[in-house]
Amino acid sequence: xxxxxxxxxxxxxxxxxxxxxxxxxxxxxxxxxxxxxxxxxxxxxxxxxxxxxxxxxxxxxxxxxxxxxxxxxxxxxxxxxxxxxxxxxxxxxxxxxxxxxxxxxxxxxxxxxxxxxxxxxxxxxxxxxxxxxxxxxxxxxxxxxxxxxxxxxxxxxxxxxxxxxxxxxxxxxxxxxxxxxxxxxxxxxxxxxxxxxxxxxxxxxxxxx
Length: 209
Known about the structure:
By secondary structure, this protein is mostly helical. Helices cover 66% and strands 0% of the residues. It contains eleven helices and no strands.
């Protein structure tokens, strides 16, 4: 990505954070950059295009850092441990992390975004599958495990504060220890309540929503 395009995305990211995606206009972005509207169209075609590019930049950045930190020769648990740490650090260090979190749901039907997400999910799932096959991970469903891992990691920017007592590295390692450790725990070893959800009628619970 060239320097000018990064400047466009940086300004759009700031405006989305300050006034909201809905209230931000292309004119506002162009004015901040001292560009004409036709000049801005060289870099972006619409607000959704900006959102797509921001999202692609965040996800691709995480994937690039992860790929640079792991090798196929590493055991699956070490690979996954490193992936989790790097994901946490890279995502929370990205200037567009809040925009990524707030508006990612709006891109669920964008085919390019879905394909990019799927590539990363498939990487995680393949590591879990390999760990299962080698007897390192004790889980029944690799896809659900990948969803759980991604859900936990992608939510970190919602509560992370740079002023907190823990560094990003410490947070990443804590999550890695818990998540990888959970996959390595033999099924049923920690819980004595099989099928609890099936044995209880949630229809009878009071509706507080």
